[in-house]
Structure formats: structure tokens, C-alpha cells
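Good morning,

Attaching, inline, the C-alpha cells for the sequence recovery test we're adding to the shared suite. The designed sequence is right after.
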């Protein structure tokens, strides 16, 4: 455990993220839950806890600077809770909805929310196109769908000034070519995730005003 604590701590320092000990311990507890329930719910292909810290925790936390002013967020196709649960632990003031169509995964998410005491998180089970009772500041996803489909399936979830924060691996050249004309891609950043030897990019998009 100490080893994992150190790995998380040095990763956070490299990302310039300051989190108190309580939040760091909750993040590690979340990884333990993932590991514990993985065989039952098939939440992640990873079995190595060290990799879970880099691929799941630190990777998810690259979202934090992009939701600094948001009050509501929806994590679409949340799966095992990435990036929604790590974000919720770090931002207890941010109201987060975790949405997934797989009832096994939402059962795990509900369990994790209870065990981690995350009062700012709601779990929703169902298809994203059927969600019509909620509008949010930010819609995010990690490897949920190509940008064109992500936009089409979730546009109705954005509030008036809402935007998308799409977490991608390699630079999505082809996907960007298929983004609809009425959508503005206003920022693409290459991300650095400590001890993760793979490309990561953040794509920020919003509907063009008046369209």
C-alpha cells in the first residue's frame, strides 16, 4: 500500500495537483474496489494495481483543469467509473452523473459511491439517448465513441453554455474531420500522464452560438 501511496503522490506532484491525504486515500480505496469487484463485473482489463493508478487514476485526473469552473458534469459510458469517480473524489462540490447502459457496471458504480461516501454523485443506468431529464455544464467520456457519434448522442445533455471534454488517446485526426459544421472544436491539448507510456489528448468542443 505504501508503494501505491508513493506512486500516486509522485504522480500528482508531476501533474501539479494538490490533494489532501483524505482524498488520496479515497482514490486508493477506489482502486481497491475496482480490483475487488473486477472479476465479478469485468470493469477493466488491467489486473496490476500499479497500472490501475497510472491508467485509471492519473489518467482520469487529467480532466480536473478542464472542469475547474463547472458545477455539473456527466460521465457518459462511465464503465468502472472513469473519469467520473476520481473527479468526484477531488471535487466534492461538483455534481456528477455517471451514466452507463451496462447494469452490471452501474451496480458496481452504485456500490462504489456508497462505500466511498460520494454524496455528489448520481448513478444512472440506461442508454444516453434516453436521458432527457438532465442538462449539465460538461459532458465527458473516455473512449466512449468517435467524436461525431459522441456529439450526436449527447448534444441534448448540454445546458446553454455547456461543452464537451472528450478524452482521447492518439491525436484524433480522422475523427476531427467528421465533426459537424455547427460544432466548434476550440481546444486540443496533448496531456502528460506520469508513468503512462501512451499518448493522451483532451478535445474541447461546444455548439456554435445561434446554431
Amino acid at each position: 500500500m505504501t508503494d501505491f501511496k508513493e506512486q500516486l503522490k509522485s504522480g500528482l506532484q508531476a501533474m501539479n495537483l494538490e490533494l489532501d491525504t483524505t482524498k488520496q486515500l479515497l482514490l486508493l480505496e477506489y482502486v481497491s474496489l475496482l480490483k475487488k469487484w473486477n472479476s465479478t463485473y469485468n470493469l477493466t482489463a488491467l489486473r496490476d494495481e500499479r497500472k490501475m493508478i497510472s491508467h485509471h487514476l492519473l489518467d482520469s485526473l487529467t480532466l480536473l483543469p478542464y472542469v475547474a469552473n463547472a458545477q455539473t458534469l456527466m460521465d457518459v459510458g462511465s464503465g468502472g467509473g472513469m473519469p467520473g469517480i476520481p473527479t468526484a473524489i477531488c471535487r466534492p462540490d461538483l455534481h456528477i452523473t455517471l451514466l452507463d447502459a451496462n447494469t452490471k457496471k452501474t451496480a458496481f458504480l452504485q456500490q462504489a459511491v456508497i462505500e466511498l461516501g460520494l454524496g455528489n454523485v448520481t448513478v444512472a443506468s440506461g442508454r444516453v439517448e434516453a436521458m432527457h431529464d438532465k442538462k449539465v455544464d460538461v459532458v465527458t467520456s473516455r473512449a466512449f465513441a468517435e467524436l461525431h457519434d459522441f456529439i450526436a448522442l449527447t448534444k441534448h445533455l448540454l445546458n446553454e453554455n455547456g461543452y464537451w471534454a472528450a478524452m482521447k488517446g492518439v491525436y484524433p485526426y480522422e475523427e476531427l474531420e467528421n465533426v459537424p459544421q455547427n460544432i466548434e472544436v476550440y481546444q486540443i491539448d496533448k496531456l502528460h500522464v506520469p508513468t503512462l507510456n501512451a499518448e493522451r489528448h483532451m478535445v474541447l468542443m461546444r455548439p456554435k452560438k445561434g446554431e
